[in-house]
Amino acid sequence: MTTLTRHDRYSVLRHLRPGRRSATALAAAIAASTLLPLAAPQLTRRFVDDAIGGAGTHRLVLIALGYLAVAVAGQGARMLTAWLASRLAWDGTNRLREMLAEHALGLDMAYHGRHTPGEMIERVDGDVVAVAEFVVAFLMDVVAGLLLLAGIVVVVLTVDPRLGAVLLAYCLVIGYGMARAQRLAVPSAARSRAAHAAMIGNLEERLAGAEDIRANGAGEHAVNGFYRAGSAWFHADYRAGRLGTALLGGTTVAFAAGTAIVLALAAWSRQSGTLTVGAAVLLFQYTLMVRTPFERLIDQLREYQAALAGVARIGGMLAERRTLPDPADPRPLPATGPLGLRLDGVGFSYADDGERVLSDVTIALAPGETLGLVGRTGSGKTTIARMVLRLYDPTEGTVRVGGLDLREVDPASARRRMCAVTQDVQLFAASVRDNLTLFRPIAGDDRLRAVLDDVGLGEWLAALPGGLDSELGGVSAGEAQLLAFARAFLTDPGLVVLDEASSRLDPATERRVERSVDRLLAGRTGVLVAHRLSSLSRVDKIAVVDHGRIVEYGPREELAADPLSRFGRLLDVAGVRR
Ligand SMILES: Nc1ncnc2c1ncn2[C@@H]1O[C@H](COP(=O)(O)OP(=O)(O)OP(=O)(O)O)[C@@H](O)[C@H]1O
């Protein structure tokens, strides 16, 4: 895991910083929610002393009403603080989430290859929420709690300096003791959580493999394993629970002892005449008030560790940099017409010290020419396609499109003029229109209908009750392919990379797909990663890839006619007419 510098931590927390006005409002609300509860015991003291001194009912009722007003206002201030703090956290969370999502989407394919979507969702959602929740709790419990404790000590010091000093000492001892106890409880609670996670993991795995387990008669063993995991969790949880109860008991006794000490001292001062009954009640109330902020503070001490870990993980993701640098002087691709393609001595490996996946790949396509890439699975065809789309930069050699080194090409222009149709078409739970335009306002409805007609989805669209507005439901693999072609037609690219779907389609859909491929490649430069040799009849050139090298390259017709060519033999083996 990345170690987090203060700068990294700042770069995460800076996004949670509120505006000046919200910060002022929040500070005022925190101050009010601290000061108002402090005032309540003063009113009790006045009430008791006045009652003992024989004050009239009118005065006592007034004090009681004052007490009520302070209590209501105090609760109101606390609610306002909670509301302001959570609004602040939501604003900050949304900013942070937005920035993280944008950052993650902009990172290289190499990063996405190393990290699962689940992991990224956990960063962008789980960790961000944990950090934001901690910020709210920090403001509500830590800042407000410390202020309240300080306020109580200061007020008691002014009422009776000796009692104030005792209360201060008592707070310090309790604080230290609770922090120590917390340190004991945290590992034990963590062990219990880990045991629970292990049990769930065990269960998940066994359920996922239920068919194999049953078929092989391993049920008894699986149940035994589950029993052991459950029992480990029970013991860990029992120990954690016992420790928790002991700590709670200890804390309660400590607080009771503190209250007793303060009461005894107050009684003694009362007897020596230095304290009124009202002041003794006031001290008693303040002593009781100490407990809640302490408990909340200690809780936050535990959350602090988790939040810090969240900040570290978010910081680690933010520290990831793109390895595909934006060009210093971006140049646009030719705006219209097919684009020539040239790979010169391209070498590549996915990891810095990893195995070479491509070596010395050299290919040249004139504008409008098409190339079929063939080769065994894992030979490097898809990787070549990725080079052409600049999803990765080559480790050696250059890739040129439209005469320009791809590293110098303006990325926006590359996205406009080049397009990819991949094997796994990503469809969204959205309208047909949004699925075609990918949520961009790039074409009117008439054009969308025309394009769907072109790829042979006209009838399919006509059968949808809501037309282009229909939510995309279950579509077949063939329809998904055709929708992907329609997307490609919409942008009218000059270079198309087509990673042919290997899934089997019914003959009618297959013909529709093939017709669309022909139309898509007509008048465009194309690279076809072919999984079916029959698809190659439409391409001009063939490159046979083996272990990352081009082992045969030339015009398709020449290679097909050559009795000794690898391509020719592949066709023979597959039973495809040369
Ligand atoms: N994202 C990745 N990270 C690391 N290695 C990868 C990655 N993608 C592919 N490889 C490796 O690179 C090599 C070439 O893979 P590639 O996908 O280019 O082959 P392919 O010819 O397209 O295979 P297929 O026909 O199965 O799609 C393989 O050894 C593969 O394991």
UniProtKB/TrEMBL annotation:
Membrane topology of the entry: Multi-pass membrane protein
Keyword field contains Metal-binding: no
Location(s) in or outside the cell: Cell membrane
Domain of life of the native organism: Bacteria
Domain ABC transmembrane type-1: 25-306
Signal peptide limits: none
Matches recorded under PANTHER family: ATP-BINDING CASSETTE SUB-FAMILY B (PTHR24221), ATP-BINDING CASSETTE SUB-FAMILY B MEMBER 6 (PTHR24221:SF654)
Protein name (Swiss-Prot/TrEMBL): ABC transporter ATP-binding protein
Organism: Sphaerisporangium corydalis
